[in-house]
Amino acid sequence: MSRRSGILEFAVLGLLREAPMHGYELRKRLNTSLGIFRAFSYGTLYPCLKTLVANGWLIEEPGSAPEEALAASLAGRRAKIVYRLTAEGKEHFEELLSHTGPDTWEDESFAARFAFFGQTEREVRMRVLEGRRTRLEERLEKMRASLARTRERLDDYTLELQRHGMESVEREVRWLNELIESERAGRDQRPATPGRPARQDDTSSDTGGLPRHGGSTRPDPSDDTDK
């Protein structure tokens, strides 16, 4: 299995842990909530879903009333199929969620893991964040060494491009430092509000104490038509 396929399977299982969905809903969530999958197609998603079903981690269920499914068949359209996580699928996702190896620090893997931090234990979050920071610090050191060796041979535009890349990495390292400090400060301990008891690992739509950063995950209005 390729790394990208593994990341996609992880993301699909994570989204279906929240609620059953059909393929269109899944693709929409992957595109809007997980930008790393913005360019992927149904031709990528459906083989992934079939593999997860074959492994016993998902089951397929009719997503429409019988008469609606019949009408879709007569019209030559694909009837909706809802994908639901099985008990084995939930257990498998929990195992993936607890993994903190070096592959979780890479760019796409880290983005997918971070999207499901609301479902992840604090100790695991910390190991992934610290590993990611270490990986970026190593990358930054190599970039600086490379720039020092080649500076005299670079034109102004190439030099600016390399500086821009270094600044991007430096910004992410600062962001990770903020996140790690928030975790160490106990960001899960949320104060009670009227009508709402204090709880841990709240996964509501606010940031729960995380540093706020830009980036909307609103669906594209052009995607409003269901399929």
Automatic annotation (TrEMBL):
Keyword Coiled coil (UniProt): yes
Chain coiled-coil ranges: 126-167
Record keyword Coiled coil present: yes
Residues covered by region (Disordered): 181-227
Pfam families noted in UniProt: PadR (PF03551)
Record field: compositional bias (Basic and acidic residues): 181-190
Transcription regulator PadR N-terminal domain residues: 12-95
Keywords assigned: Coiled coil
Record InterPro entries: Metal_resp_DNA-bind_regulator (IPR052509), Tscrpt_reg_PadR_N (IPR005149), WH-like_DNA-bd_sf (IPR036388), WH_DNA-bd_sf (IPR036390)
Protein name from the UniProt record: PadR family transcriptional regulator
Species of origin: Streptomyces lichenis
